[in-house]
Amino acid sequence: MTDDEFFDFCQQHPQLRIERTANHEIVIMLPTGSRSGKRNFRLNLQLGKWWEQHQSLGEAFNSNTGFTLPDGSVLSPDASWVSAAKWNALTVEQQDKFAPVCPEFIVELKSATDSTKMLQAKMFDWLRNGAQLAWLIVPETETAYIYRPSQSEPELVQGFDNELSGEAVLPGFRLRLAELR
Length: 181
Fold this sequence. Notes:
By secondary structure, the chain is α+β, with helices and mostly antiparallel strands. The protein has five helices and twelve strands.
């Protein structure tokens, strides 16, 4: 299935959340439960509030957004951010489909039906494709994993009384994990 055919397939099935692996295998994602939806909203709300003050730096996206990565996969993180330089280099047609760009920042929020092991592998896929900062948040255990290209293993943050920093990628952004309980 070509990129255009995959995009059309996804448009014909708007009730499904669909991703494609680098091997062009189609992955149907289950809808999240209400608690996961609540957490996802709160995550994106915090990112959106930061974006309102930093719009000139780039664009923020929610979990409905698919990106075509350099390895050919099409993934949809729960929250993401793309710098203005990368976003503005795309044509309008590219922006209207699954943009061929890897966000510099992504967040995956584990839901009850997700496999932590599979999500951890996916985080390294994001880094291999160009993400500069990636967070995997696991509400059940109140843990977060911070992935950076310069590190072979993620940094573990235990406890939702902590905040995660957007570091140099998202200057001034701090995610309050307590809001994701």
